[in-house]
Specification:
Shape: globular
Distance between the termini: 33 Å
Largest sheet: 6 strands, parallel
Order of helices and strands: EHEEHEHHEEEHEEEHEEHEEHEHEHH
Number of helices: 11
Strand order of the largest sheet: 3-2-1-4-5-8
Strand content: 15-25%
Length: 310
């Protein structure tokens, strides 16, 4: 990677990824794009609606990029509210980005998700290659996206790469409509009110990861030697598996008076229950050296400090 175009640059991942990439490769070599401008950036910015393939092609060609990191998408809970909008953005945008990468011979990254799994997927130690029958539009989009990226690699030789992200936790950007959003909200409420009401039920474990580890994973995968990658797309990655009460117990080590209660959202709870309890990241570890630096308590300490600062 030398010159990188990022779609969805103001989303949860994009807003921090642009900063990290700018630090590694220089701000002038990272072209941030989104559907509307929100704030000033050190490097170049272009407005792009990813459903407009020609605009995406023109911007990629204008800046002579060698890599597209395609992040623009509707997340799980938001996608269920408007499935056709999710299909048009998530799948239409992905096909457009893949076509631009094919036409200009670019390296390509897009994330998948634990949402690509479904109720019939093995719940514990979920393997890299397994049954995927999701029951949400978001999950359907992610499985189709994984297959499309594999197809573009096999059919056209495109250097496609991707990971299956777990729930991502960050102090920089507020949640954007995902099922794991509670794992971000809980820290803000712990600092502000020393209490939180979870919309996900007690005992509902899901894979999670702190954003610094997620950003490192993207860079490490993209910098890996192509010959080492057998799977290329949709690598299982995770840092830890946790339920709401696990977050509460971790927070109570730093804020003893913190209290957790529940008001379960049936829609998001159903999505959460269709996902695995814990996935197996062994293939990513073996093929490109995936690793994490933060467990739950280390992340909690850092999150609470950073949220207090904000």
């Amino acid at each position: 990677m030398k010159k990188i175009l990022v779609t969805g640059a103001f989303g949860q991942i994009g807003s921090e990824l642009v900063t990290k990439l700018s630090g590694l490769y220089g701000s002038s070599n990272v072209i941030a794009t989104d559907i509307k401008e929100k704030n000033q950036l050190d490097g170049p910015f272009e407005i792009i609606d990813v459903t407009d393939k020609q605009r995406l092609h023109d911007v990629a060609k204008k800046y002579e990029v060698d890599t597209i990191m395609h992040l623009a998408a509707l997340l799980s809970a938001t996608a269920e509210k408007d499935p056709m909008k999710a299909w048009n953005i998530n799948m239409g945008g992905l096909v457009n980005a893949l076509e631009v990468a094919r036409e200009l011979d670019l390296q390509f990254f897009t994330p998948s998700s634990i949402g690509s799994f479904g109720p019939s997927t093995p719940k514990d130690n979920t393997p890299q290659d397994t049954l995927q029958r999701p029951t949400t539009m978001y999950g359907v989009n992610k499985v189709a996206g994984e297959l499309l990226c594999d197809y573009y690699h096999e059919r056209f030789g495109l250097d496609t790469r991707g990971v299956r992200f777990p729930g991502l936790i960050s102090y920089e950007t507020l949640p954007g409509g995902g099922t794991t959003d509670y794992a971000v909200e809980i820290y803000y409420e712990a600092v502000k009110n020393k209490a939180y009401t979870s919309f996900i039920g007690e005992g509902t474990k899901m894979d999670m990861m702190y954003m610094p580890d997620a950003l490192n994973a993207i860079v490490d995968l993209m910098e890996a030697e192509p010959s080492e990658l057998e799977h290329r797309n949709a690598f299982n990655i995770t840092a830890f598996s946790a339920a709401p009460e696990d977050f509460a117990a971790s927070i109570q080590k730093f804020i003893p008076e913190f209290e957790l209660s529940y008001d379960v959202d049936p829609n998001r709870q159903a999505i959460a229950e269709s996902w695995p309890n814990q996935i197996d990241p062994t293939v990513a570890e073996n093929e490109w050296g995936f690793k994490t630096n933060y467990d739950l308590d280390k992340m909690t300490k850092d999150m609470l400090e950073k949220v207090k600062d904000k």
